[in-house]
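debug: dumping io for the single-chain case to check the tokenizer round-trip. Nothing else runs in this session.
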Amino acid sequence: MGRSPQDCSDVMYADVAKELRRSERVTVSCHLTYSAFTEEMLIVGEGTAVDISQEGLGIEGNQPVEDGMRLTLCLALPDDEGPILIDEVRVVWVKGSRFGVESILIDPRSRIRIEHFLLSKKLNAPAGRERICLRLKM
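debug: decoded output
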């Protein structure tokens, strides 16, 4: 028996999100902290970056966030350098304790470190693994 459209919402959402991505995401497990000021309070959370791209990150966090919220991140990449400060990201989706952010304001040196990290992960990917990069055409 087929599933109703309500039952398929997660699948449809995942397909749309993949189509809208501008660059490939790489699976990671990097510790991070995040913070935001709201009208009512200061939010300070920590979690794990579960995937990363040139444009943003997927995060599993311990403090709730909302779609559209602006955060500051401190990301610990598994390299020999210190953590990366990302001055401003915007939450673009939330599902439970997982959420995705896109980078809004990041200094050039930090952006280069992320790009080098992504390149090293791609170069060390298993042979024969397909890499697909979708670009939006407008």
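debug: round-trip ok. The chain has two helices and six strands.
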